[in-house]
Design goal:
The protein is mostly beta strands. The chain has one domain. It has no helices and three strands.
């Protein structure tokens, strides 16, 4: 695995804080992101 820090924000206002890649046992390289989702706390309700 490998990653870089990022300041990318997508069209839905979700922050892609880290972008990385990994290699499978078959040798294929794939991408992955650590996404911080934008949340509207005005419509948030806590449940027990």
């Amino acid at each position: 695995t490998n990653y870089n820090n990022s300041n990318e924000v997508d069209a839905n206002n979700n922050a892609h804080k880290q972008q990385g890649s990994f290699t499978t046992t078959a040798g294929a390289t794939n991408k992955m992101n650590d996404v911080w989702f934008d949340v509207d706390l005005a419509n948030f309700s806590k449940t027990a």
